[in-house]
Write a structure and sequence with these properties.
By secondary structure, the protein is mainly β. Helices cover 7% and strands 65% of the residues. It has an 18-stranded antiparallel sheet that branches. The longest helix has 13 residues, at 6-18.
Length: 284
C-alpha cells in the first residue's frame, strides 16, 4: 500500500462531487481541496489507480459525499463511487443539493466531463425533486438527461415519463404518462414532447402521439382534449390540436380535423368537418 498525498485526495472529491450537482455547481468544486477518509486506501503506481473501501467519506468546502467504496484514475479522467452513495452540496446560489444513488461516476476531465448517477437516483434541491434509474450530466454545458421511471417536480412543471432531458432552456420527454404545467394547470400524456422553459415557466410545448390533455374550465368541470398532435403556447394562451382532434366537456363533445382551445376564455375554434354532439335535458 502506498500513502496517498493530499493532491490526489483533492482530485477524488472533485470527480465524485460533480456527479451529484448541476454543471455550474460542479465547476465551483474544481478548484477546492478536500479530505478523503476510508477504512482502507490503496494506490497502484503502475496503473495510477486509487481504490478506497469502507466508510468512504469525502469532505470539501462545497459539501460532502459518502459511499461504501470507490476507484479511479489519479490522472483525473475517470472515477467511480458505489454502495449507498449519499451526497450533500451547496449550489453557487446558496441552495442545498442532496443526492442518493447506488453508483456515481465521471469520465473526462475538468469542464468537459460526463457524470452519471445510477441506481435509484434521487436528487432534491429546495422544493424541486428528481428521481430516476439513471441521471447523466455534461459539465461543458448546463444539460442533463434522466432515464428510467423518471419522476420530476420542478418550479414550472411536474412529469412522470420514461425519459426526460434538458439542455439550457429546451427540454424533451418520451413516453409521458403525466405532464402537469403549473401556470395554466394543464395535464397531458403523449408519446413524446419537447418545449422551452423561460423564467421558470413552460412557454412553448409540442406533444405528439396519442395526446390527451385535461384542464379545468370556468364552470368547475374539466375539459378533455385529444388528438395526434398538440401545441401549447403560454403567450397566446392556446392549445392547438391537430389530427383526429376532439374535445369533451360535460354534456357535449366536438370532433374535427383540428381545433384551437383558448385557455382563458374557454372558446373553441374548430376547422375541418366539425361535428358536435350534446346531451339534451330529458327532465319534464
Amino acid at each position: 500500500m502506498r500513502k496517498v498525498k493530499k493532491p490526489v485526495m483533492s482530485l477524488v472529491v472533485r470527480i465524485v462531487a460533480a456527479a451529484a450537482i448541476t454543471a455550474c455547481a460542479a465547476g465551483a468544486l474544481l478548484a477546492q481541496e478536500a479530505t478523503l477518509t476510508a477504512d482502507s486506501m490503496n494506490y497502484n503506481p503502475n496503473s495510477r489507480v486509487i481504490t478506497v473501501e469502507g466508510n468512504v467519506h469525502i469532505t470539501g468546502q462545497a459539501g460532502e459525499i459518502f459511499g461504501d467504496a470507490g476507484r479511479g484514475s489519479t490522472v483525473g479522467d475517470n472515477f467511480e463511487m458505489w454502495g449507498n452513495v449519499k451526497g450533500r452540496f451547496t449550489h453557487k446560489d446558496g441552495s442545498v443539493v442532496n443526492i442518493t444513488c447506488a453508483t456515481a461516476s465521471l469520465k473526462g476531465r475538468d469542464k468537459n466531463s460526463v457524470v452519471t448517477a445510477s441506481g435509484d437516483v434521487r436528487i432534491t434541491r429546495g422544493t424541486e425533486r428528481l428521481a430516476a434509474d439513471a441521471v447523466r450530466w455534461s459539465t461543458s454545458v448546463e444539460s442533463y438527461s434522466a432515464t428510467g421511471n423518471v419522476l420530476g417536480s420542478f418550479t414550472a412543471y411536474s412529469i412522470d415519463a420514461d425519459a426526460v432531458s434538458r439542455n439550457l432552456n429546451a427540454f424533451e420527454a418520451t413516453n409521458i404518462r403525466k405532464f402537469h404545467e403549473n401556470s395554466r394547470k394543464i395535464t397531458m400524456s403523449a408519446s413524446r414532447a419537447d418545449g422551452t422553459i423561460k423564467n421558470n415557466e413552460v412557454t412553448e410545448m409540442t406533444a405528439e402521439g396519442g395526446v390527451v390533455a385535461t384542464t379545468p374550465n370556468k364552470d368547475g368541470g374539466m375539459t378533455r382534449i385529444a388528438g395526434d398532435k398538440a401545441v401549447y403556447s403560454l403567450a397566446r394562451g392556446t392549445l392547438v390540436v391537430t389530427g383526429r382532434a376532439n374535445i369533451t366537456q360535460t354534456g357535449r363533445a366536438l370532433h374535427s380535423e383540428s381545433l384551437v382551445y383558448f385557455l382563458d376564455s374557454g372558446r373553441i375554434d374548430a376547422v375541418g368537418a366539425p361535428s358536435l354532439t350534446f346531451e339534451t335535458d330529458r327532465k319534464k
